[in-house]
């Protein structure tokens, strides 16, 4: 707890310094500062991670400007906003972020920005949330430890928006001890994605009523594509020979596998920052691959996939990436990758993993 408080104090001091510099830059640049919309210009939207960025740009089309705050290839856990980021945030019309314990830095940032007109969308508040499922962990000791303090039934709703925003450190810590850790990766479900997209669209229609019909048309078309892909994955699962997936990595796909009644064994939970697996974790995953005849060991994007490679080398199977769409590489970003294109690849990966 002391280390967490110290970390927050260090962040607050750093943020105050950045804000001071930002205000100086803003006061000296008039209306020409990059990221600050001129009066009567297009709505300005900032999203922290790739999934929310892509959802927003699918709705916005050319009628609004959308920026991704966390650069391609970066981890949100280590990201620090620049003065230019804060200037952009102080003038944006909509800000979209994930929420949850990994986004404490975002809460600090929002509290420090003077922009009362900004619409803020927290993705975990758009849908029903569930706790991280520690039963998927390959090491039973880790799973047992993770279950301690989980007081409410799995599958219930998570933080209320007001509680998450105003509860403070002590309240949040007490909440986590009582309820466990909310799985933040809500967008990995195509069905949740459609709900989040609709929320973005509704708010954007309010901000920019002149382009409401265009926003609604793009939203309807995009949600239709999400539904089509959801149905395609249902077919892939129905035609599969198994329902168990093995991840030699973190597991940020709780909402995805829940949609299709799949099972999983993994090295780490989704929000873990661990990179080194215990010997027991690797041994148990190797045994699972052999016993269940698993053909593919999965890993997530931006991973060194060392654990998956080790398991595959020991068992003679292949490794494949399942993309959570949390962030993407610079090459993928420049190449026009989208949430849909990445999830379409996931469907093919799933086909191989369930064969």
TL;DR?
With 355 residues, the chain is an alpha/beta fold. Helices cover 50% and strands 11% of the residues. A four-stranded parallel β-sheet has the order 2-1-3-4, with helices on one face. The protein has a four-stranded parallel β-sheet with strand order 6-5-7-8, with helices on both faces.
Write up this protein.
The chain has helices at 2-29, 50-60, 83-90, 104-112, 140-147, 161-166, 168-179, 190-207, 212-239, 254-259, 279-292, 306-315, 330-334, 339-353, and strands at 44-47, 65-68, 94-97, 119-122, 244-251, 263-269, 296-299, 318-321. With 355 residues, the protein is of the alpha/beta class. The strands form two sheets. Strands 2-1-3-4 form a four-stranded parallel beta sheet, covered by helices on one side. A four-stranded parallel beta sheet has the order 6-5-7-8, sandwiched between helices.
Q: What tags apply to this protein structure?
A:
single chain, 355 residues, alpha/beta, Rossmann fold, 2 domains, four-stranded parallel beta sheet, 8 strands, 11% strand, disordered N terminus
CATH architecture of the largest domain, please?
A: 3-Layer(aba) Sandwich
Q: How much strand content do the residues show?
A: 5-15%
Domain count: the total is 2
Largest sheet, spatial ordering of strands: 2-1-3-4
- Low-confidence runs of at least 5 consecutive residues: 1-39, 145-178
Taking all Cα atoms into account, the compactness measure Rg is 21 Å
Taken from the alpha-carbon principal axes, the silhouette is: globular
Query: What is the residue-mean pLDDT, rounded to a whole number?
Result: 83
The CATH C-level name of the largest domain is Alpha Beta
Ends apart, CA distance between termini: 46 Å
The CATH topology annotation of the largest domain reads as Rossmann fold
Q: In DSSP terms, counting alpha (H) and pi (I) runs of 4 or more, how many helices?
A: 14
Q: What is the CATH superfamily classification of the largest domain?
A: Nitrogenase molybdenum iron protein domain
Helix fraction bin: 40-55%
Tell me about the biggest sheet? Answer: 4 strands, parallel
């Amino acid at each position: 707890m002391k280390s967490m408080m110290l970390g927050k104090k260090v962040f607050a001091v750093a943020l105050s310094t950045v804000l001071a510099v930002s205000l100086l830059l803003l006061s000296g640049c008039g209306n020409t500062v990059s990221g600050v919309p001129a009066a009567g210009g297009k709505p300005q939207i900032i999203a922290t991670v790739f999934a929310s960025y892509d959802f927003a740009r699918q709705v916005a089309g050319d009628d609004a400007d959308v920026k991704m705050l966390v650069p391609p290839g970066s981890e949100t856990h280590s990201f620090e906003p620049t003065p230019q980021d804060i200037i952009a945030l102080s003038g944006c019309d909509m800000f979209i972020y994930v929420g949850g314990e990994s986004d404490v830095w975002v809460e600090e940032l929002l509290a420090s920005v003077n922009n009362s007109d900004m619409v803020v969308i927290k993705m975990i508040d758009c849908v029903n949330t569930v706790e991280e499922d520690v039963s998927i962990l390959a090491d039973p000791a880790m799973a047992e430890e993770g279950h301690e303090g989980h007081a409410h039934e799995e599958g219930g709703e998570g933080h209320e928006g007001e509680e998450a925003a105003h509860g403070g450190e002590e309240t949040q810590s007490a909440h986590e001890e009582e309820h466990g850790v909310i799985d933040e990766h809500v967008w990995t479900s195509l069905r949740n994605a459609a709900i989040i997209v609709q929320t973005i669209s509704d708010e954007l229609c309010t901000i920019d009523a002149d382009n409401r019909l265009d926003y609604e048309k793009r939203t309807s078309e995009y949600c239709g594509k999400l539904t089509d892909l959801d149905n395609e994955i249902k077919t892939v699962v129905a035609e599969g020979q198994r329902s168990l997936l093995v991840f030699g990595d973190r597991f940020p796909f709780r909402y995805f596998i829940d949609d299709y009644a799949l099972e999983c064994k993994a090295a780490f939970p989704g929000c873990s920052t661990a990179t080194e697996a215990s010997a027991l974790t690797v041994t148990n995953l190797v045994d699972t691959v052999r016993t269940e005849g698993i053909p593919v060991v999965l890993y997530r994007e931006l991973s060194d996939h060392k654990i998956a490679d080790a398991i595959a080398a020991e068992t003679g199977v292949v490794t494949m990436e399942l993309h959570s769409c949390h962030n993407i590489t610079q090459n993928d970003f420049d190449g026009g990758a989208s949430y849909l294109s990445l999830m379409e690849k996931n469907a093919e990966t799933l086909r191989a993993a369930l064969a």
